[in-house]
Amino acid sequence: MYVRIIYYPGCTVKSTAMGYEKATKAVLEEFDIELIEVANWTCCGVVYNLAIDSVVFTVAPLRNLIRAQETAKIREAENILLTICSMCNHTLRQADRRYRIDPDGADRLRRYLDDEAEYEGKLRVMHLLELLRDVVGYENIRRKVKKPLKNVKAAAFYGCLLLRPREVAVDDPEDPTIMEDIMLSIGIEPVDYPDRNECCGSYGIVRDPESMWERVREIAESAIRMGADMFVTTCPLCKFNLEEGQMKKSRELKGKILPVFYISELLAFSLGRMDSLDREVLEKIENLLRGD
Amino acid sequence: MASRLAEKIFELTGQDVYLCYLCGKCGAGCPMASHMDLLPYQVIHLIQLGDENVLNAESIWYCATCFTCSVRCPRNLDVARIMEGLRVIRLRKRLDTIDLRKVKDIETLPPIALVAAGRKFTG
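Predict the joint structure of the above. Result:
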């Protein structure tokens, strides 16, 4: 089955997380899913303002939703807008939801965005994890595995915005399984640990990095205690914080530092798409499989 | 009678702080609680009392808007939104909590962190 969908990359995916995109594209190619990038996309805003009278913070994500909708029409794609970054997914979904449930807000937003087409609200913003669950299917992933990742244990790190608030969550906020289910389909053994759906400290790193490193130390300790060999995430900010925090707290962690992978990198490896992985990532995975 | 601050918070967030019965669940589950000078329910209590000193609490900036409190509140209060209301009161007066020009090692931080911080910490 061939599917063509719209894809919103976001800033970090095009700068410090380019490997994430490359691996994702390779994985989806294996399932005949073609990604059409939103024409003239801009920053999604990264965070959403929760004040009910706030308009400015909704403009950026809504503009991207409109451009995605128009791209879908021109390129004759499905009305699915794929995001791979947890924070982009969050702002785009919040904006989409606000437009649908808050008519006064929508009216003001329309006036701000009068240089764009009207938003029709027909897009389904889908995170990569949901695409893998709902469109690809775990069974299809399992069937395509060439190199199962056996004898490795991984700690799925959901972080905050994939799961909360409930109205825009990709899975149950308190007991998610979506990442573990995908991991299981490529042979990885997931570990259960208390911090898997907690916040990494997020953008707090800019204001008080020490507090964030402390947060990461707690998360890493809990994952290590449960026997994890690595972290798996879909958020470029979680990845950055987990890596940075573990490095800064390496003494407290007794030198045991868990590598952090994007879920697509592990999928790409297991599906035999090593060509899409940076050498450094490939080596890290191979080292883990050898038990180093 | 509702305090002036509680009314302002209602206007900004649609949340009625008087629904809170101070059970403490938000504070118990908050991942940033160990860095907070006031736990979320203490913040809410001060809003109930109309104590505007709450606007000077460090806690409102340590809150990373992760919504853990919001999904757990037995009174269905959107606690993260209330914290945002307090930040917004300050930020709309241009009372920023960081100066991006003074952030250490700024070039090592990914854009996702900088844009988020710019939008949550400056007005």
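The mean pLDDT of chain A is 97.
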